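Lab notes, practical 5.
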Amino acid sequence: MANYDLIKDAIVNKKQVTAIYNGYTREMCPHVLGTKNGRMQCLFYQFGGGSSSGVIVPGSPQNWRCIPIETMQIIEVKIGAWYSASNHSVPQSCVDEIHVEVEI
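Output from the prediction step:
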């Protein structure tokens, strides 16, 4: 539950999250936290770090990442600029049951 609580706090207070996922250090802003088919997941907007999807282009609508939170390692929450994309209001499929969502 520690990862869940860290990410929930980051959403509520619009903080950045740095974590390792699939071998890449990622800098992200969490937007939606909840479950999909009973699995805890979060929809992040990645603004820095690495990704198996290729280079992170700042401001790109392609930077959305749906990540199961139990697979994230070394999660750090920090104060910094908030990043999102113009397509934030497009319906997401990462989370079925929303526990908390950022207020934009």
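Observations recorded by the TA: The chain has one domain: 2-85+93-101. The first strand starts at residue 16 and ends at 21.
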